[in-house]
Every structure is written in structure tokens, then in C-alpha cells.
Design goal:
The structure is a single chain. This protein has one domain: Glycerol-3-phosphate (1)-acyltransferase (3-Layer(aba) Sandwich), CATH 3.40.1130. It is 45% helix and 16% strand. It has helices at residues 2-30, 35-57, 82-88, 107-113, 126-139, 167-172, 192-195, 204-213, 233-247, and strands spanning 59-64, 72-76, 94-98, 117-119, 143-146, 176-185, 217-223. Helix 4 (107-113) links the parallel strand 3 and strand 4. 35% of the residues are buried.
Length: 256
């Protein structure tokens, strides 16, 4: 059954993926004269694009708590590239993500289509550039999501948050929303930390193929009930980490 699922899902993706991309390009061309219409069209198409993808991949998304309304600045733990698709099924937003994601097949195209802000964390000089782009995005009343752990994990724990991308929130005392992600796989499937989370030295193509073989994935987003405000980005990072850690449900399973 695993190989049947893989073949079937790949076949569907071959038709569905370019169809949504062409629809996106067509709308952006037709609405090129009106910025608000372009943004609305992009949000509409990409959200349904991602909803189609989770359906094809066998992912069921459950939301707990109330999602924030735009404009918002949201921080989250990070488990892999599936996080972006999962969040976009319920939110219209812009992400800050690792720079190499832009070149990945399929998911890189989606990331570029939603105007993702790409950061090269190996270059400290890239942080001021991204903070300027965050400032512009928030001025345009967009929703923004960042992953302040700085990398994705297998979901055993929540890494301490880096405060570098919280400059806008601190400077403007903008309220920070927070949420946590959790994944589970079906009975008989490999555990989510090996098959859904993308971390460590995993290779994208083999990971994607293993993901396509899964019988099902349960994705849960837990939105926090309050916001965080401070003019100190380190204080924001610490407070957000504590609140996400308190509601975090580990994904990692000890297989020993």
C-alpha cells in the first residue's frame, strides 16, 4: 500500500500543482493594476493550494484556540517544511524561512509564491536586511510568522528562542501571538519525528517520498490565548518560549 499511495499522490501532484500555480500567475497578471486585489488573489489561491496539498498528502489539520487576525506577528516552534503548508491552510501570512528553501522543488515554489522572506542565518549581516523587510510587511498590515528556534527539530523539545528577528515587535511594542505545532502519524506508519518533521541531516527528496507513503498525518496547531508585549526583544523571546513550551506536546518518540 505504501508504494501505491506514493505513486497515486505523485500522479495527482503532477496535475494539481501546476494548475494552482498557473491560476496564481493568471490572477496576478489580471490584477496587476490593483495591489489589494493582487494580495487578495494570492492569499486565496495559495490557501486553497495548501488545502489541496494537505488533502493529497493525507494531512488533517486541527486548530485549537483562536487564530490571530491580521495584522499579526506570530512565533512558533518549527518542525519542518510542512509547517508552512499547515499554517497557510488557516492563515493569510508571510513567513521568514531559511534561504535554501527557495530552491527546493514544489515547496520552494509555494514559499516564493507567498512572498516568503528568506534569511541566511550563516550571515549575521543578513539580519538587518530581514528586519527591514519585516518592518515593511507589518506596515502593509500583513500577518507574519517566524520560527525563532532558528532551525527545525524532531519535536523532542523546544529550542531556546533567538531574539534577533523580534526587533520590529520590541521597537513598536507590537503584540506577539504564539502557537505550537504537533504531528502524529497513523497506525503502522513510521513515527512523525522521522517521517513528517524535517531536521538534522535528512535529505529532502527521500523525506518527501517517505511522507507521501504515510497512511495519514494529524497536524495540530495550538494558538495561545494571549499576546506578549515588551520593548525588550530578549524578554519577548524568553516569554514566548516559556508559553509555547508550556503548551507544547512532544512529537519525538524514543524507539529504543
Amino acid at each position: 500500500m505504501e508504494w501505491i499511495r506514493l505513486a497515486l499522490r505523485l500522479s495527482i501532484l503532477i496535475f494539481v500543482f501546476p494548475a494552482f500555480y498557473l491560476a496564481l500567475l493568471l490572477g496576478l497578471f489580471l490584477f496587476s493594476f490593483k495591489k489589494k486585489l493582487k494580495i487578495s488573489w494570492r492569499n486565496f489561491i495559495v490557501q486553497w493550494w495548501c488545502r489541496a496539498l494537505v488533502l493529497i498528502l493525507g494531512i488533517r489539520v486541527t486548530v485549537k484556540g483562536k487564530p490571530p487576525e491580521t495584522p499579526f506577528f506570530l512565533v512558533s516552534n518549527h518542525l519542518g517544511y510542512i509547517d508552512i503548508i499547515t499554517y497557510f491552510t488557516v492563515l493569510h501570512c508571510v513567513f521568514v524561512s531559511r534561504h535554501d528553501l527557495a530552491q527546493w522543488p514544489l515547496f520552494g515554489l509555494i514559499a516564493r509564491s507567498i512572498n516568503t522572506l528568506f534569511i541566511d542565518r550563516t550571515r549575521k549581516m543578513d539580519i538587518p536586511r530581514i528586519n527591514n523587510q519585516i518592518d515593511l510587511a507589518m506596515q502593509e498590515n500583513k500577518g507574519l510568522i517566524i520560527f525563532p528556534e532558528g532551525t527545525s527539530t524532531g519535536g523532542k523539545d523546544v529550542l531556546r528562542f533567538k531574539p534577533s528577528l523580534l526587533e520590529y515587535a520590541a521597537k513598536n511594542r507590537f503584540p506577539i501571538s504564539y502557537s505550537s505545532l504537533h504531528y502524529e502519524t497513523g497506525v503502522g506508519d513510521p513515527p512523525a519525528h522521522r517521517s513528517v518533521c524535517y531536521w538534522g541531516d535528512m535529505h529532502f527528496v527521500s523525506h518527501l517520498f517517505n511522507l507521501l507513503k504515510l497512511s495519514r498525518v494529524q497536524a495540530t496547531i495550538r494558538f495561545g490565548p494571549e499576546t506578549i508585549q515588551s520593548n525588550d526583544r530578549k524578554a519577548i523571546a524568553q516569554s514566548a518560549w516559556e508559553k509555547i513550551y508550556d503548551q507544547f506536546q512532544p512529537v519525538y518518540v524514543d524507539e529504543k
